[in-house]
Amino acid sequence: MPADIKMTTADARITAAEPRASSAELRAQDSRDEILKAATALFANRGFHETSMSEVAKAASVSKALIFWHFKTKEDLFMAVLSGLLEPYFIDFTEEAGALDEKAQIIRLIELYLLFVRDNAGSIRFFVAQLLHDERPSDGLANQVMQLYDGYRTLLVDLIGRAQNNFVCIRDFPPLAVANMLLATLNGLLIGFLFTADQAVQVESAVSMIRQWLFHDGPQVGLPPSL
Question: Region 153-181: what's the mean pLDDT?
Answer without folding.
Answer: 94
